[in-house]
């Protein structure tokens, strides 16, 4: 049983080898009113985006749920003795119709949301949660799973089957299968309430992020690169407003905070951005958050856990919240110490610039601006100087080329031959070194109204070997600002790093070679590992020489500029580490509260004061806009996982360094074979030890960030 609502779409469940495919041809149009039909067209079928409408989903959900209920009922009511084949494997086969419908719905609501989709999401999220509970809490179904589990030692199962059986049994127990009927009813009510609250949170956040700061005097945009101003102009035109519009999303706000010389505008834009969801208006999320945290604590207690963090972390590499806290607090003091140094450098520069005029004190809306000035002063480099060499199409090609060098993956663009949900979406056929089709890759790179903020990877179809071989269909979704007509899209070095990061997730999917769908999903604190590692190849000499070319002249990025970038490699690591870690620490502390009773704003302030948060920095995600935590359970008590994964990532990059080359084939092969292709078929901590010969060393992470290692 591997439905999207049981296995979160963001959990990595990677790509598969299959027979060579015929040349792509336009997909046959599915029946416009039936989203439950198997996908048709090339590559064993593709999503029918071009015919999807909101009105199709209610009957499709009803039909898909009915299919799932019939499949599960047949397993639960089977009168034969329970076996691995008629119970566990039968569950693995179930739910394919609902998988397809939820895939289409999830992508539409994340990428193309409208009031109609928002209404559907609000209606159907609780219903789907109820269906999940109906299955997980079915006593007859669990009795059969338990019967197979109790006889596992004598069942003649291989290692993968044993692991699937054990993980299936553990998941049902963790989700309440052994509760009494009254407790099960209480649990299902909580889960449905949470599903509804998650939808409300996401919709309010999207509404706040759809607003913008309007500018009618171009002088206020002094210092902002022309390409960014052009994007602001285009945003205003789309809104049918005069002048320029700075949308309330990170991709639009950060360039203004980095380059804009008008301090009052920087402050206004910064305040609007950090107060998303926290304005006491119709889009305020604090009451929703308080309800979510309380319901999570109630659920954890019902399931026998001391708190939500313990419940969520049982199936992770860290397991114990204390281990995650220990890692975070190992890094926190060094990061705060570095911030003090960074602020001192910025303040000195600001004081020197004052020259008799009123001096300023560095505030949060000044950090990126003066950080950029210090970068320029210390290393004679600024982000605007780099942008002409980081043209989006070249960076996409760079990510593909690196994957080819490391893993033999090849990419052929087939845009126009398969349906897409938005005209700017591009599609590639991915093949392995033998020329066999292994995946389709969809690239959705630009911000637009109705698309959630940030960057993410999604899976439209996960690889598997059972019950029938299936190749992967994956996507990367970014929010780059689209350039004016006829202009190239120039992205920052940070944006390019994000592109490589998300593509690392996609590579994980493309390389997966698992048999059972239930062994595809990796623990939350492993999820970010492949993506963190993949960032490292962006600044390798081979990639820069081939793809960091000036968008006008085609000239390679000068070696002197590369040297400056390398020299500045650990620059600003205090800021980036503190803004992230503050969010991760607040997340964990919030979900350790036994009764879950909390005032989100007050708790946030108290926690930051307790850990000594520098006043010049705000959390990367304040609680009122923390979509990782409150639009689903996915990253709740799990935001630490980026640091956990990056610790493994830094240590893995050290393995390539020790081998003498970032392109060392033996290391890449071992990395792919032991860690990337195996899903969750083996314990991930054991797999890492098999790859590295030991546990990951946090000193590699500290060294990478330029922090003291002792």
From TrEMBL:
Its cofactor is Zn(2+). InterPro entries: M3A_DCP, MetalloPept_cat_dom_sf, Neurolysin/TOP_dom2, Pept_M3A_M3B, Pept_M3A_M3B_dom. This is M3 family metallopeptidase. It comes from the Bacteria. It comes from Alterirhizorhabdus solaris. GO terms for biological process: proteolysis. Residues 1-20 form the signal peptide. Binds 1 zinc ion. GO terms for cellular component: cytosol. Belongs to the peptidase M3 family. Pfam families: Peptidase_M3. GO terms for molecular function: carboxypeptidase activity; metal ion binding; metalloendopeptidase activity. Keywords: Hydrolase, Metal-binding, Metalloprotease, Protease, Signal, Zinc. Residues 261-706 form the Peptidase M3A/M3B catalytic domain.
């Amino acid at each position: 049983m591997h439905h999207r609502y049981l296995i979160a779409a963001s959990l990595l469940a990677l790509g598969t080898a299959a027979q060579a495919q015929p040349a792509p041809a336009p997909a046959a149009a599915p029946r416009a009113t039936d989203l439950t039909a198997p996908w048709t067209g090339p590559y064993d079928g593709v999503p029918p985006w071009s015919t999807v409408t909101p009105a199709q989903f209610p009957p499709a959900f009803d039909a898909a749920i009915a299919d799932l209920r019939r499949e599960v009922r047949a397993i639960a009511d089977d009168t034969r003795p329970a076996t691995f084949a008629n119970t566990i494997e039968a569950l693995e086969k179930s739910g394919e119709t609902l998988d397809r419908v939820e895939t289409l719905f999830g992508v539409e609501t994340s990428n193309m949301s409208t009031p109609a989709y928002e209404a559907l999401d609000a209606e159907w999220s609780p219903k789907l949660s109820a269906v999940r509970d109906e299955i997980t809490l079915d006593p007859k179904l669990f009795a059969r799973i338990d019967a197979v589990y109790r006889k596992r030692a004598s069942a003649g199962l291989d290692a993968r089957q044993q692991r699937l059986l054990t993980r299936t049994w553990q998941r049902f127990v963790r989700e309440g299968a052994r509760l009494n009927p009254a407790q099960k009813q209480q649990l299902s009510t909580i889960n449905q309430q949470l599903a509804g609250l998650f939808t409300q949170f996401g919709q309010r956040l999207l509404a706040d992020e759809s607003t913008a700061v309007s500018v009618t005097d171009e002088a206020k945009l002094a210092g902002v690169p022309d390409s960014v101003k052009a994007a602001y102009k285009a945003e205003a035109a789309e809104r049918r407003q005069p002048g320029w519009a700075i949308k309330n999303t990170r991709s639009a706000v950060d360039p203004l905070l980095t380059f804009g010389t008008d301090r009052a505008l920087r402050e206004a834009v910064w305040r609007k951005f950090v107060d998303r969801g926290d304005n006491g208006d119709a889009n305020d999320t604090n009451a929703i958050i308080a309800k979510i945290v309380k319901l999570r604590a109630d659920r954890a207690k019902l399931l026998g856990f001391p708190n939500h963090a313990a419940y969520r972390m049982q199936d992770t590499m860290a397991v114990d919240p204390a281990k995650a806290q220990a890692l975070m607090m190992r890094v926190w003091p060094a990061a705060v110490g570095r911030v003090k140094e960074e602020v001192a450098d910025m303040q000195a520069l600001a004081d020197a610039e004052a020259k008799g005029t009123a001096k300023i004190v560095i505030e949060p809306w000044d950090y990126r601006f003066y950080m950029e000035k210090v970068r320029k002063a210390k290393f004679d480099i600024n982000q605007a100087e780099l942008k002409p060499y980081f043209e989006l199409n070249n960076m996409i090609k760079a990510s593909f080329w690196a994957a080819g060098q490391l893993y033999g993956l090849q990419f052929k663009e087939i845009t126009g031959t398969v349906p897409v949900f938005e005209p700017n979406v591009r599609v590639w056929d991915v093949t392995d070194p033998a020329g066999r089709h292994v995946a389709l890759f969809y690239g959705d790179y630009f911000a637009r109204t109705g698309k959630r903020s940030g960057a993410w990877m999604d899976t439209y179809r996960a690889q598997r070997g059972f019950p029938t071989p299936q190749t992967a269909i994956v996507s990367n979704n970014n929010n780059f600002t689209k350039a004016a007509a006829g202009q190239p899209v120039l992205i920052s070095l940070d944006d390019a790093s994000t592109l490589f990061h998300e593509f690392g997730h996609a590579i994980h999917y493309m390389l997966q070679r698992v048999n059972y769908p239930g062994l595809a999903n990796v623990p939350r604190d492993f999820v970010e590992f492949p993506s963190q590692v993949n960032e490292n190849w962006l600044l390798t000499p081979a990639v820069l020489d081939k793809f960091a070319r000036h968008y006008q002249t085609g000239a390679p990025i000068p070696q002197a500029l590369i040297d400056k970038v390398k020299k500045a490699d650990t620059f600003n690591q205090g800021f980036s580490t503190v803004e992230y870690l503050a969010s991760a620490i607040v997340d964990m502390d919030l979900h350790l509260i036994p009764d879950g009773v909390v005032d989100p704003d007050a708790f946030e302030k108290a926690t930051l004061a307790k850990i000594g948060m520098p006043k010049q920095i705000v959390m990367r995600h304040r609680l009122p806009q923390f979509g990782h935590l409150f639009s689903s359970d996915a990253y709740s008590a799990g935001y630490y996982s980026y640091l956990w994964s990056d610790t493994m990532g830094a240590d893995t990059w050290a393995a390539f360094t020790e081998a003498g080359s970032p392109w060392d084939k033996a290391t890449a092969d071992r990395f792919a074979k032991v860690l990337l292709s195996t899903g969750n078929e083996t314990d991930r901590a054991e797999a890492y030890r098999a790859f590295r010969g030991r546990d990951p060393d946090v000193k590699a992470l500290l060294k990478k960030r330029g922090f003291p290692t002792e």
